[in-house]
Amino acid sequence: MKSFRQPRCVWLLGCVLISAFFSRGPSASLVHGATPNVPLATSTFDTDAEGWTTDADARCHPAACYAATDGNPGGYIYSDDLLQGIKFYYVAPSKFLGNKVAAYQQHLTFEMRQATRGTIATNDVDVVLVGGGITLVFDAPRNPPAIWFPYDLPLDETSGWRKGSVTGPRPTAAEMQSVLGSLTQLRIRGDFILGQATSNLDNVVLGGPSVPLKNVYETFLPYLTRYRSDYETFLPFLAR
Fold this sequence. Notes:
Helix content is 21%, strand content 28%. The protein is an alpha+beta fold.
C-alpha cells in the first residue's frame, strides 16, 4: 500500500470506489444491485479472535490480540510489531482455506485502521494467497488511516493480483481458480510504518460482494462534510 495523508477524503474514496482495484471499476453488484453471493468465510470478531494468528514479527504472536469493543462494530484483532525490520501479517484460520473456487469473480473484503508512532510509511505486499503451487500477491492503493477503512479486492485475474511479487505477471483465469481451489494461505499485512505502529483488522469476508456504497458514505460522511471541496471535485467519479 502507498502512504496515506489524512484527511484528504478524495484519496480515501478513490481507493474504494474507482482506483482500488486498478484496472477494474465498481462491481456489477454495486452498480446494478445484483443479488450478492453468500460469503464462503467470514470473521467479524464479535466474540474472539476466531483462530487468526500472526507471523513472527508481531508482538501478539502466535495468536492475534483481541479487543471486544471499538470494532466496526463489536470486536477486532490487533497487534504491533517487534521492530525486527520485517513486516508482519495476520494469518487466516482454516475456515478461509481449502476449496474456495466458488470465490472466483467474487471479492475479498476487510476493514483496517492503524495508530502510528512512526512517520515514514512503507509500501509492500498487502495480501497474499497461496494455493496450487502458486503465490498471488496484491498491493493495495493506500495504507489504512486512523479510522476504520474498507478494502475490496476482486478475486479475478484482471484486478491487480500478481504472481510471486508486485512486479510479477498477472495470473491467468485458470491460475486464479487453481489458487482458490486449493487455498493453503491467506495473509493480510499488519505493519505499514517504519517504526512502531498498531494495526487493527475487522470484518474479513472471502467470496462475498463488493463493499456496499452506503458503507463508504457512512464511514466518510463527516470528512466529506468538512472537506467539501474534495467531495465536489470527486462527484463526477461517484456518478459513473
